[in-house]
Automatic annotation (TrEMBL):
Keywords: Cell membrane, Membrane, Transmembrane, Transmembrane helix, Transport. The chain crosses the membrane at residues 12-34, 46-67, 73-93, 105-126, 138-162, 174-203. It is found in: Cell membrane. Its main location: membrane. The keyword tRNA processing does not apply. GO terms for biological process: transition metal ion transport. GO terms for cellular component: plasma membrane. It is a multi-pass membrane protein. This is Cobalamin biosynthesis protein CobM. The lineage of its organism: Archaea, Methanobacteriati, Methanobacteriota, Stenosarchaea group, Methanomicrobia.
Length: 216
């Protein structure tokens, strides 16, 4: 799914620092709000640990198309952990991924913004869908599709704004290539939507209490 699979040096130092600074600012806000809130729910911490492990593992399973596409599980992170814990999860997953060569260190900031957009949108859409329908599969599936679509838009915007050093393409040519990649990603998004839906339905049957925070 949406992830900038470029090596270090693809963006100029200015853009690397800018995306990192924005990501650090959002992480700082998430930490502040978490510390200001009431005592963390042990169930949420357990869920966060689970989805962090699952997301990191699935990040490394790539389909060799357009430089590699993969599932993200970011919609699942948003639905189960929420945007605050989700911010920390996304940061950890991207740091660990960069440590084993999945994306450059300089692009961690940009990738955090891409994945965080998916987490936030999935969290919001799932909560909104729950007010319309009690069908958890539909709510999770729609949340996954919409959030992953937004993630692709954010990915494309960051690359187009930053530019890629050493690539001599017009903005139109770059947009064309990115649009094709986004189309492939959205094909994978359908698969992820089904997986997310089945997981949420399963959790809703055996541990409905874990979804209580997503109903409000």
């Amino acid at each position: 799914m949406a992830h900038i699979h470029l090596e270090d040096g693809s963006f100029t130092v200015f853009w690397v620092l800018l995306w990192w600074l924005i990501a650090i600012l959002l992480i700082g806000i998430a930490l502040y709000l978490l510390r200001s809130s009431k005592k963390p729910d042990p169930k949420k911490i357990t869920i966060a640990a689970f989805v962090t492990t699952a997301a990191f593992a699935i990040f490394q399973v790539q389909v060799p198309v357009f430089g590699g596409v993969h599932l993200n599980l970011t919609p699942l992170i948003g639905i189960l952990a929420g945007p605050l814990l989700g911010t920390l999860i996304i940061f950890i997953v991207n740091i660990l991924s960069a440590a084993i060569g999945h994306g450059g260190w300089g692009l961690v900031g940009a990738n955090v913004l891409v994945n965080l957009s998916e987490v936030i949108v999935a969290w919001y859409v799932f909560r909104s869908m729950n007010k319309i329908t009690s069908n958890k599969f539909s709510s999770a599936g729609v949340a996954a599709i919409i959030s992953l679509f937004v993630g692709n838009l954010v990915m494309m915007a960051i690359i187009l704004i930053s530019g890629i050093q050493g690539v001599h393409q017009t903005p139109g040519e770059l947009l064309s290539g990115l649009s094709l990649l986004a189309a492939v990603n959205m094909g994978v998004a359908v698969i992820e939507a089904f997986i997310t839906g089945f997981i949420i339905v399963y959790i809703g049957k055996i541990r409905p209490d874990l979804l209580e925070g997503s109903r409000k």
